[in-house]
């Protein structure tokens, strides 16, 4: 199963210079399907709230602080202050920040999607190929939630397979179609913790996503932790770098699951529009499900 | 006209502790109206692309650089690198970044919306009231474009009034309703320049937005520059701090205008979902119009 | 005692545009006196070690961290890495960093040294007068240690007066002369804690420094905490802004005290050469005593 | 000459775990020799002034800016402001900043001084061996200036050899002894420019420094540029990683040369006391020559 030639891959599928990956699957037809999901305009955020950690000057700083993806510096604007402004130091790949991974984020076999040597995509001065530029116009497509944690958190040592995903579709009366954004809830928002063991997707599940044509993956969890040393991780080791499928890490799908259950439907319009910053390896995002 | 008691204001309208301002106007009914605009799922970004300025180490740095709201630092992840990551220093209120102003961004008469002393809303460690927390769940409403620059850029010394806005509605066959996001195009994307004179809204136009119940303002321009010394500026001096109307600065409405013209309609679903960062004075955003 | 007209002040003493303050007292004669202190070349650092707090990308970050004046970002230099480099976010006025306060750091009665309106010295873009530029060439003078904590930490509610300083001189057989750097040890390195009550200097002690012609003050403590509401603090409220005496905050004088006791002398050459950064409000420094 | 076994090296000389490198050569005897150089207390800074680049909020930012090693953010301290403070983003290895390179800054043959695999010295979270911690207490030793540019800038294609250094010693009547800091002036302050060809040291000159026991190198230039592809660069490729000799990059020796010429002596006490920051790859420094 870990023979690399057999791993699902889109290298070359949309050309040797492609930067969109599975976003190519979001066609006009898919967008129309997404549009048909919009009925009441009710919306749900899938982002984890970030509480910035202040950068304090002077004798007021505490000696320890919660870690945060954002260090906030309140800026001087004059005295008295006519306005309030701030500057932030932002860590793009942080487990406490809901963020979009660019396709060149992960290296596999010395290459990044779609099979380029690292040095041709990434430089000291930023990412020149396969960066967040691909997300510039925003991602609008149909979204589907598979709530694997509907009966309680997925057990820690559980590797989710294609059968689990098929079963979830059946249970929730929904089917993932080509171009859809797949939102997965493991039910781990409360208990996930950096460095602790966590369940995740098997490579077989990544292949399922490949076969179905998932355009974006957004989950409260993704890869099992700790990683098996002999197998690339399904999402960050296969889906992102080989399938060219953007990942949204650190999603909070709890409210979404509650709304889907309340409405009795598990599909919606999915809008992910991160700040339009080119050339990055990742970018914070606030994905929105619109019903 | 500049008697402060006569300026449009929502101080107290939704309570002394309100943090949503005119976002309160986005009711379920407004969302349904927005939903009805979605037909094909076609979407347009209203954000200006940001090209980060790299923070270079070593002998490779140039001696001058374009200014940018984003300073990007490529991060070390090991050698050889298994992944690529980065950290950014982000300037929240920057004229080259499309961003949402929080309600406490601007001080008027020593107070911030909805009439609180500055010290009760803003601290050295961040904003405790009237911050970007208000935008946490994203803003989904109906959007309307008034393309004031359809026949060419609005002249530099022109103060847009309620009559101009009425005329634009008539011309484009659209009417701004309570709860709508108002997108305005002056036709200045190419020519606007920091420090140069620019046209903008008259206070009379802000009062029109107040009367109509605009929930959010998004424009390629907003306030006239230079500012008249005896009059508060219409958008940053009245609409934001007194009406409690969030502003999206530095919008690019050119592509939107082209699409509206092509489709022959000037209304759409408007989605603004900035990174879910609490306690800030502003935050970058990539507003999306969905047709 | 708190009549402001009676507070020691050097406003105007070296002209209305002076940026050096009491550094003006370091004459060639003072430097020669300093030179005579150098005999063995033995040196002692007066700086507190700073352990940077890393800015981690990826799943490895802890959830809490020690606060630090320095946030370190390891930089990507290529893969494999030919070199290692880093970037740091540095908080100039931090109680865990030994740093030099520039003369315009503190405002008194709406003015900064030597009596300028704030807006003429400090802007949104940096400090244009009374900044760290004054320290550009380094400070080389004679240093004297008064070890007030030789018999144990100075009690928490103790305000050090001129009599205490006179007594210390007598005890340690040393006399502070015009142009000297004064190093004071309260014996609080182990116990000082942000937000906890601490002893410090009385205004009478600042006047003593004024009369003696101290050029720089470097102490493990300086001002009493909490501050009395009706009296400006002696060091940050009087010495820095009125006397124009640069302060080195957060000094570690423990090793210095041990060496002085061992050698039986309390004077030395004092070298403070912070990074040569212009236009700042403060700058980290590693003061060195050379014997 | 480029047979790596023949390159000068101190790997193992002071043990497999050494972090001081050639700073080990600064003995008590060397310090006494340094002390004897101090006569008048006159001092000269060898640091290039840094003009910070402000991080501007609001409509006031220019569209281009000079590059700078320092990005300064003026901090909010309240309104009206009782104090002024700032935060800086500092690039440690920058050609416009006089800085000390830590021993693990450069990798040679997959190893860093004194022959450790990279992964044992450098991590994503900082440097655990061979970092700036070695400079914590400051460097105090005798300094010697060899003014190679006394008759005009060294020609661009000139590789300085041991013979040039011998000749300079003879001309200036000084001799580099074991433990000395070597300051070299190429006369390139005005004309050096990143990316332009520059003269520098031959490996033969690094061997000369090795034989003489130089403890620290401080030059306005160091390595030739562009580098010859088949030969490691003398200072950053041999002296730093193999000899374990700390380098001070981007030194301004012009004023020092003038003072040496005026006084007719080319030796002095050399004090380099960078901010006491542990675990970094480099740190800004303001080296001081005391006469």
Automatic annotation (TrEMBL), chains A, B, C, D:
The highest taxon in the source lineage is Bacteria
The protein's name:
Kynurenine formamidase
Matching entries from Pfam families are given as: Cyclase
């Amino acid at each position: 199963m870990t023979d690399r030639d057999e791993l699902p891959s889109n290298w070359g599928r949309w050309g040797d210079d492609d930067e969109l990956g599975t976003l190519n699957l979001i066609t006009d037809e898919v967008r129309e399907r997404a549009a048909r999901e919009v009925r009441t305009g009710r919306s749900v955020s899938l982002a984890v709230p970030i509480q910035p950690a202040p950068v304090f000057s002077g004798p007021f700083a505490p000696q320890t602080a919660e870690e945060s993806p954002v260090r906030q510096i309140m800026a001087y604007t004059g005295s008295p202050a006519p306005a309030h402004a701030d500057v932030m130091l932002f860590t793009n790949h942080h487990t406490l920040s809901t963020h979009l991974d660019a396709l060149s984020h992960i290296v596999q076999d010395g290459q990044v999607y779609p099979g380029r040597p690292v040095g041709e995509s990434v430089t000291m001065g930023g990412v020149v190929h396969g960066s967040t530029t691909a997300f510039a116009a925003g991602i609008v497509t149909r979204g589907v939630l598979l709530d694997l944690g509907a009966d309680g958190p997925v057990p820690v040592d559980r590797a989710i397979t294609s059968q689990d995903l098929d079963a979830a579709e059946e249970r929730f009366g929904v089917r993932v179609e080509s171009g859809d954004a797949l939102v997965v809830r493991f039910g781990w928002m409360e208990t996930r913790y950096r460095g602790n063991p966590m369940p995740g997707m098997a490579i077989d599940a990544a292949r399922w996503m490949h076969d179905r044509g998932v355009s974006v993956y957004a989950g409260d969890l993704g890869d099992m932790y700790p990683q098996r040393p002999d197998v690339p991780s399904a999402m960050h080791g296969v889906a992102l770098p080989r399938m060219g499928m953007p990942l949204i890490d650190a999603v909070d799908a709890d409210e979404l699951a509650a709304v889907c259950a309340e409405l009795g439907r598990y599909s919606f319009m999915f809008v992910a529009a991160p700040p339009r910053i080119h050339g990055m390896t990742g970018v914070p995002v606030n994905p929105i499900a619109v019903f």
